[in-house]
Target: NIPSNAP family containing protein
Amino acid sequence: MITIHLKYEIDPDRIDDFEEYGRRWVGLVNRFGGTHHGYFLPSEGDSDIAYALFSFPDFARYERYRADSVTDPECVAAFELARRTKCIRRYERRFLRPLDAAPAPRDEPSV
Model:
C-alpha cells in the first residue's frame, strides 16, 4: 500500500472554496480505487495550512489514477475550481508506507 500525504498552503479567505475542492476529491479518489482518509483543515494554530491523506493498494494504481484524472471531467472541474479561486497557494506531496503491526518473520537458523 502507498499513502499520499498532501500539505497545502491555502488562502484563509478562500476556505469555503478549499472545502468544496476537498469534498470533490474525497469522492473522486474513492471512485478511482483509492481510499481517502480525509482533509484536515486549520482549527487552532496556522490558519493557512491544511492536510489530506489517501491511499492506493500500490504505486501502479496511484499512477493509473494520476494519468486518468487528467482527462476525467469531474477531476478537471476540481482542478479548475482550485485554479479559478486560487484557494491553494502551494502544496507538497509525500509518499508514505504504513508500518505493519506484526513484525516481519525472522529466518530461523538452520540446524
User: Anything to note?
Assistant: The mean pLDDT is 92. The domain at 2-96 is CATH 3.30.70.100 (Alpha-Beta Plaits). The helical segments are 15-31, 59-69, 73-85. The first strand starts at residue 2 and ends at 10.
